[in-house]
Design goal:
The protein has about 900 residues and is mostly helical. Helices cover about 75% and strands about 0% of the residues.
């Protein structure tokens, strides 16, 4: 039974000894170099005066023997850079007299320590300490295996051995402290012996408790705690390695000593004493690592105890409260008994220590379901953080952490599914008994009001109090964020995101307070961080007004409010050129985009059935206008990522406005309908092409990469919708579709209008994009135009449903005549406006007509229709040739000689 634990302790001691050895090596390296530098002085000087000589005394040693006359004291001589020969012996005093001002030689560089010296002075001692501790364990193990001693004797011998090691460590420390050889031990012999002694003491007490039952849990707990505290005390004399061992042992003691009925008050009082000792040691020796380690262990002890449920809130709250107070007193720089602090600088350990205990208090609140005691302690810690940060710049980082954790607490309360927390006192069973959650709403409302007022006033009053630019911004950011976040959380929890005039009034009051703060700060003399703080309070004003609008109106207005807030922030950035405001505007735009991903209808089922003038127009149109305005304002400050984000949001909302309104109008208000018809696809294509034309024009002026990419994406989408929708899936020749009247019908919307828009787009990109890009769009316009001509002729012969019925000879002849006429019109346009693209399109159409005549008309037409088809085609071709010869090329030939004369 005793064998395995001692193997465990042997391994633990080995690890501890290696840590001690490593730390010792780092500590004494510098001391050894300094000592060797002193020892490298000339032997004559060392023999004459063993203690180190000052420069003045060394100079006096170089003079001849003193005479009876007084010699004036010369000033100190600064040694030359070049080495000087050593001072001669007394018999050569004459030579020394000739050179009385020769400076002492420079110190010889420290020699490198050899392998033998390292092994002999360091590793032998370290390994010796380790083997000394292991030897004691192995001796006890042997005695157990051989049955030489009983359990009581084993425990007693372990205690004697631990005491002997501790006494040996203290004796060696004192012995070396009075020695004239070395003031600080190179091999850390006292620390190693003391560490081994404390480890054996831990093992002995634990064995007496866990293995043999000699000690009750309370006694073992006290003894292990005393050993740990003694180890921390010894660390004052023996260095940081022993302090680390003491901290680990102290916080591990409750794990080693367990009980079926844990006493949390005893545990947390013990941890408070350990924490105080560790913080005190860290403060005396300025060991930041020890403070951080203690805080980490203390916070870890919060997690397992939370499993005991909300019934044990008081001791858990005492744990974080005591730790917070100790950290504020001993760890925070510049406050009470903490180390000195630099003005205007945030110290990570100071801020992090307060934030760590705030996190522990937050966990207790969440785990206890917002019990009153937990909320009160959490409020005290938040207030304490503000007070400490107000007095010490080093703890200013805890202000931001406190603001964030306050929001976490109230946000979790807002989303928790506990409707009974909203029941008024008495509830539905009035008179039966008090409800355990009766005071929860009142307590949260009071706490929220105190937090909002505290953070807001502190954020305002802190301006001009601190020297650096960062700390005032932290205070103002917390002062703006916390009231707004609390207002949103309470609104969500109490009003359930429905209309609430009282909350709207509170939001207006908050906006007025932020506006007053902005006005007052704007009149002050400029200081570091003041402009950023003014911008934050101005942004808070816009945010509060947006929330007031949201609270007073329907749910969909939240999207509008956030979009308007983004535009307002962009405007503020033009008045206060602070980079943070540009980022904030883009962040708000991103939030609005995410919002529509959750519910594209903005207002849900209340979107309305009226085409165009419904909630989609306000829910998408106003944010689109806000983002376009915000992008214009942000562009004044340069082209950067925030600007591009807002520009992308503006394009996205404009496109979605068009698409959603089309779906709403075509599908009788059902924007979630799974299928689309020819009308919807045609409208989508037309809207996309129109927006692509607009972006092409806009990008010429702005040069924005977002406008450029948006135009390309819209053009690509229009092309895909044209091919997949208009020409394939919704083609009236392939599906049973009623296209309507003879001229005013779906064909005009689905093919003629997209053809015109595609043609305009091709001219918009001509000369500004690659030729192939523009020609591809022009080819698409030509295809749509031919499709329109074909489908209109088909409508003339077959009625509203053109997918049925055979094709007659007259219909085939009409196609040929129409194609020829279309080609001639294109040619006329090309000649009239000198457009080569129109003339090429005419050539393509006429070539298709020729192919149709030889491939289709010759085989399908008969009689007079065949003759008329070829006769008409021939006349048109001859006429085209005449036009080219007599008009086009003669005009070009006449213009060619005139060019040199004009030049």
């Amino acid at each position: 039974m005793f064998e395995d634990p001692f193997v465990f302790f042997a391994i633990a001691i080995a690890i501890v000894a290696l840590v001690v050895a490593r730390k010792a090596m780092n500590e004494v390296t510098e001391l050894r170099k300094r000592l060797e530098a002193f020892q490298a002085a000339p032997a004559t000087a060392a023999a004459a005066m063993p203690p180190p000589l000052t420069p003045f005394e060394a100079f006096e040693r170089t003079l001849p023997p003193a005479s009876t006359t007084a010699i004036p004291t010369p000033p100190p001589i600064i040694p030359d850079a070049e080495p000087v020969a050593p001072v001669a012996a007394p018999e050569t005093s004459g030579q020394a007299a000739e050179d009385p001002v020769s400076p002492p030689p420079p110190p010889v560089p420290a020699r490198e320590r050899g392998f033998e010296e390292t092994i002999g002075t360091r590793w032998v001692v370290w390994v010796g300490g380790l083997t000394l501790a292991l030897g004691g364990f192995f001796m006890v193990r042997y005695s157990i295996e051989a049955g030489l001693i009983g359990p009581g004797v084993r425990v007693m011998l372990g205690g004697v051995f631990a005491l002997a090691l501790l006494l040996a460590g203290e004796w060696t420390r004192r012995k070396e402290s009075i020695s004239t050889i070395e003031a600080t031990p190179i091999a850390n012999i006292p620390a190693i012996l003391t560490a081994a002694g404390t480890a054996v003491a831990f093992a002995t007490v634990y064995a007496a408790y866990a293995l043999y039952g000699f000690l009750v849990p309370a006694t073992a707990f006290v003894l292990l705690g005393l050993v740990a505290m003694g180890t921390l005390a010894a660390a004052l004399l023996h260095g940081p390695a022993l302090a680390g061992l003491g901290v680990v042992g102290a916080f591990a003691t409750p794990v080693l000593v367990s009980s079926g009925k844990p006493d949390f008050w005893a545990l947390y009082i013990y941890l408070a004493i350990v924490t105080a000792a560790a913080f005190g040691l860290a403060r005396i020796r300025l060991w930041r690592w020890l403070a951080v380690t203690t805080i980490a262990f203390a916070l870890l002890w919060t997690f397992p105890c939370l499993q005991c449920g909300p019934s044990m809130v008081a001791p858990h709250a005492f744990h974080v409260l005591a730790g917070f107070i100790l950290a504020a007193l001993l760890v925070v720089c510049g406050f009470m008994f903490g180390p000195p602090a630099d003005e205007g600088e945030i110290e990570p350990v100071s801020s992090g220590s307060l934030a760590a205990y705030l996190l522990g208090a937050t966990l207790i609140v969440l785990n206890s379901f917002h019990a009153d005691t937990a909320m009160i302690v959490f409020g005290l810690l938040v207030a304490g953080s503000l007070v400490v940060a107000w007095r010490s710049d080093a703890a200013a980082g805890a202000v931001g952490a406190a603001a964030a954790l306050v929001f976490v607490v109230f946000a979790e309360w807002a989303v928790r599914a506990n409707p009974d927390m909203l029941v008024l006192p008495g509830g539905p069973l009035q008179g039966i008994g008090p409800n355990a959650t009766d005071g929860s709403v009142s307590l949260h409302l009071i706490s929220a009001a105190i937090f909002a007022a505290g953070f807001g006033m502190a954020g305002f009053l802190a301006q001009g109090r601190f020297a650096g630019p960062v700390i005032p911004v932290i205070w103002s950011a917390a002062g703006v964020f916390t009231p707004l976040a609390l207002l949103v959380a309470l609104y969500a929890r109490i009003a359930h995101l429905d209309r609430s005039i009282p909350f709207a009034i509170v939001a207006v009051v908050l906006a007025a307070a932020f506006a007053a703060a902005t006005e007052i700060l704007s009149k002050r003399e400029d200081r570091p961080g003041l402009q950023a703080s003014i911008a934050l309070f101005a942004t808070g004003t816009l945010a509060a007004l947006a929330l007031a609008l949201t609270f007073a109106l329907e749910k969909g207005w939240l999207t509008i409010a956030l979009a308007l807030m983004s535009a307002g922030t962009a405007w503020i950035s033009t008045q206060r050129p602070i980079a943070f405001l540009r980022v904030l505007a883009s962040v708000l735009a991103g939030i609005v985009v995410l919002r529509i991903g959750y519910e594209p209808r903005i207002a849900g089922d209340a979107v309305g059935a009226t085409p165009i003038f419904n909630w989609l127009l306000w829910g998408y149109g106003i944010p689109a206008a806000a983002f376009w305005g915000g992008s214009i304002l942000l562009r004044r400050g340069g082209d950067d990522a925030p600007l591009r984000t807002v520009e992308a949001a503006a394009i996205l909302f404009t496109v979605l406005l068009a698409f959603m309104e089309i779906r709403h109008a075509v599908n009788q208000g059902d924007v979630y309908r799974a299928s689309a018809d020819l009308t919807e696809v045609a409208l989508q294509v037309c809207a996309t092409l129109a927006m692509a034309i607009g972006l092409e024009r806009l990008r010429i002026r702005t040069g924005s990469v977002i406008h450029n990419a948006g135009a390309i994406l819209l053009t690509a989408f229009a092309g895909l919708a044209t091919v997949a929708g208009l020409l394939l899936l919704e083609n009236p020749m392939l599906r049973w579709i009623d296209i309507g009247g003879l001229v005013i019908n779906l064909l005009l919307l689905g093919y003629a209008l997209p053809a015109v828009l595609a043609l305009l787009l091709s001219y918009a990109v001509a000369g500004r994009r690659p030729v192939a890009y523009a020609n591809t769009i022009a080819a698409a316009a030509l295809v749509l135009a031919l499709a329109y001509v074909t489908f209109e002729i088909r409508r003339l012969y077959h009625g509203p449903v053109i997918a049925r019925g055979p094709t007659t000879g007259a219909e085939q002849y009409t196609y040929s005549i129409a194609y020829l006429a279309f080609g001639v019109v294109l040619l006329g346009v090309g000649i009239l406006f000198n457009s080569q693209r129109a003339r090429l399109a005419s050539a393509v159409v006429i070539a298709l007509t020729i192919l149709k005549a030889f491939l289709i008309d010759m085989s399908t037409l008969t009689g007079v229709y065949r003759a008329l088809s070829f006769m008409g085609l021939g006349l048109v071709l001859v006429a085209i040739g005449w036009l080219y010869q007599r008009i086009l090329f003669r005009r070009q030939a006449a213009a060619a000689p005139a060019a040199p004369a004009g030049g």
